[in-house]
């Protein structure tokens, strides 16, 4: 079946590429950046995927969201081929043979190795508990508008995983197609980084920047181990927005300004936690723009530019519209307590924010340097060191009469954007190292630009290859991660990657390794189907079963489900009463030990355990190796 999955994924790429080229044909604007074809390919795939996801979420308002209907919907993008301008842009893209210099060849080799090592089903915990589970619900209900699932994760924005449904309707519970979709978003991020840096400097600089991104543990193995899922779409959208804004500022180009707005608008639709990043970057873009009024007027005067922006904004607003239709609150679960929705209270919001939320601005500034280094992003370490020594760099280049105002201004721009991204991440969500990878494309360019600036203007290194060579050595430092296999997070081996390519390994073959309790849970579920019919799954962490693989039932859990009202957690009787009021007679608990069956607990028995939940935790949900002050909730 893997061969059919690869074929379906190839067809999806063709649809995304065709849709993206069709969008460029509608925009009808060519510039120098499009001559760099890896960059153009990345932009085309990014825009094409935005359109496809937008089509799917719009279609999800109907009750026809299932089966081959989804493939017929996205196949309509082939109609773009009937437009003469689309064919003209395709000719523009394929008008000459692709030429490969040494830097480009090495990039392709690394990209191929990266692709091979990611030939594995999507198995990380977040995907199985959330990002596979949500599209599955849409397909099962035939629509995104349904109210019978009580779990906050069903309401998160998840643009990057909407195409997962296309694999589900063809291949059921096999997750290889979804893993390839996850890989595609990271391809796009790498194409954009390599293409833009190559356009600005040369392919060796582009290679170094791309390797800064690729050879990062969370990026390289996203989704195919147990613990880490990194949304590559967020990386691509943020980097695409930032470099397009810079190009629009330097060249006074409203076309690039329009693309920056489109890309930035999709960040929230992909990861709602990054709302501060979106606000900060949008404010910076507007304040830093040279001729904002002229560019705005030109965008507003062109329907073929204004309409795509409006459509992109709608695709983002869809997630708010959908949540409003289902819960009555557009931002649900954010601010649910303020309006007492599903039994949440202002107190419960305060507690959840303290345990799982971000840092206040003064605390973010206090630990800003530390939080650039702690997550383990090499490019970010270079960025913060440059920021610290920026006054000395300026002084040194001035004394040596090598100060270049425009080059220094751009250096400040990329460093400033990096600061805004980190501050936005710090203030929004709990401190998880993977979140700091969302700005890794920007960090990579900023690091390359900083090292190049210091060598050329500070140390007067005349030869560009010397600077590029130093950057390549720095970017290759973590190369050993390519060979990581096994360990507690279950990284795939080279043999397993080969077995996937040869159609000898499938999702069902690795379930016991990643989710050993699932087989037990399924067996017990079917043996006790009479109880299961009026039961709910316990999803209180740690979740050691795959929600995606289990039969769908309501969820009950302290952090994820408001089935039990916040105030009810103070009383066993109230906990049991809330559960029974939802028509639930049993709680199914898969447990964490070596039990041979799941436990069927009555609401009263579950209440005896739930009453012990730590309602006012002293430490944050994720602690890692943070300083004590950052781990303390203050509750």
Structural class: mainly alpha
The largest beta-sheet arranges its strands as 2-1-3-4
- Portion of residues in beta strands equals under 5%
User: What percentage of residues falls in helices of 4 or more residues?
Assistant: 55-70%
Shape: globular
Descriptive terms for the model:
four-stranded mixed β-sheet, mainly alpha, globular, 635 residues, 31 helices
Commentary on this structure:
The protein has 635 residues and is an all-alpha fold. The chain contains 31 helices and four strands. It has helices spanning 2-27, 37-59, 68-75, 84-93, 102-117, 125-131, 133-141, 164-171, 176-200, 203-214, 217-220, 232-251, 254-270, 275-288, 292-301, 303-327, 346-356, 361-366, 368-373, 378-388, 390-399, 405-428, 440-458, 464-475, 494-501, 507-514, 516-527, 529-532, 572-581, 603-610, 628-631; strands spanning 535-538, 555-556, 586-589, 599-601. The chain has a four-stranded mixed β-sheet. The N and C termini lie far apart (52 Å). The mean pLDDT is 91.
């Amino acid at each position: 079946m893997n061969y059919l999955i690869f074929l379906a994924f190839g067809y999806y790429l063709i649809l995304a590429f065709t849709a993206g080229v069709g969008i460029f044909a509608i925009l009808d604007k060519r510039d120098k950046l499009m001559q760099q074809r890896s960059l153009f390919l990345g932009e085309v795939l990014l825009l094409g995927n935005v359109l496809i996801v937008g089509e799917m979420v719009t279609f999800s308002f109907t009750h026809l969201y299932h089966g081959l209907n989804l493939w017929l919907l996205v196949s309509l993008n082939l109609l773009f081929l009937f437009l003469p301008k689309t064919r003209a842009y395709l000719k523009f893209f394929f008008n000459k043979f692709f030429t490969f210099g040494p830097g480009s060849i090495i990039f392709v080799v690394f990209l191929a190795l990266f692709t091979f090592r990611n030939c594995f089903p999507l198995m990380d915990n977040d995907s199985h508990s959330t990002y596979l589970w949500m599209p599955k619900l849409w397909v099962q209900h035939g629509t995104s508008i349904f109210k019978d699932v009580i779990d906050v994760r069903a309401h998160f924005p998840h643009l990057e995983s909407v195409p997962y449904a296309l694999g589900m309707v063809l291949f059921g519970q096999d997750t290889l197609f979804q893993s390839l979709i996850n890989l595609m978003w990271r391809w796009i991020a790498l194409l954009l980084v390599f293409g833009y840096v190559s356009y600005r400097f040369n392919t060796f600089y582009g290679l170094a920047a791309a390797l800064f991104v690729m050879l990062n543990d969370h990026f390289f193995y996203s989704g195919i181990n147990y613990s880490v899922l990194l949304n590559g779409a967020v990386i691509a959208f943020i980097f695409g927005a930032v470099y397009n804004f810079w190009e629009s500022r330097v060249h006074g180009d409203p076309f690039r300004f329009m693309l920056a707005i489109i890309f930035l608008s999709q960040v929230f639709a992909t990861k709602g936690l990054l709302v501060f990043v979106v606000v900060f970057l949008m404010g910076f873009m507007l304040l830093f723009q040279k001729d904002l009024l002229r560019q705005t007027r030109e965008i507003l005067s062109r329907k073929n530019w204004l309409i795509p922006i409006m459509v992109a904004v709608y695709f983002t607003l869809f997630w708010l519209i959908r949540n409003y239709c289902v819960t009555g609150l557009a931002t649900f679960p954010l601010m649910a307590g303020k309006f007492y929705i599903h039994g949440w209270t202002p107190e419960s919001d305060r507690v959840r924010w303290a345990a799982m939320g971000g840092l206040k601005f003064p605390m973010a500034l206090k630990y800003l340097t530390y939080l650039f280094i702690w997550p383990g992003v090499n490019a970010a370490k270079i960025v913060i060191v440059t920021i610290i020594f920026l006054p000395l760099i300026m002084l040194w280049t001035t004394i040596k009469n090598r100060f270049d105002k425009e080059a220094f201004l751009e250096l400040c721009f990329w460093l400033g954007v990096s600061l805004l991204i980190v501050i936005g991440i710090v203030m929004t969500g709990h401190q998880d190292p993977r979140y700091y990878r969302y700005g890794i494309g920007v960090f990579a360019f900023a690091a390359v630009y900083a090292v190049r600036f210091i060598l050329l203007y500070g140390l007067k290194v005349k030869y560009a290859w010397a600077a590029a060579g130093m950057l390549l050595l720095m970017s290759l430092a973590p190369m050993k991660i390519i060979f990581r296999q096994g360990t507690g997070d279950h990284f795939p081996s080279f043999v397993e990657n080969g077995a996937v390519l040869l159609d000898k390994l499938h999702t069902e073959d690795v379930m016991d390794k990643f989710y050993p309790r699932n087989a037990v849970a399924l067996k017990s579920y079917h043996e006790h189907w009479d109880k299961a019919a009026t039961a709910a799954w316990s999803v209180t962490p740690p979740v050691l079963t795959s929600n995606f693989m289990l039969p769908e039932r309501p969820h009950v859990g302290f952090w994820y489900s408001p089935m039990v009202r916040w105030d009810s957690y103070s009383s066993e009787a109230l906990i049991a009463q809330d559960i029974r009021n939802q028509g639930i007679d049993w709680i199914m608990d898969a447990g964490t030990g070596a039990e041979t069956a799941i436990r069927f607990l009555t609401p009263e028995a579950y209440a005896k355990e739930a009453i012990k939940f730590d309602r006012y935790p002293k430490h944050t949900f994720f602690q890692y190796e943070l300083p004590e002050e950052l781990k303390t909730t203050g509750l």
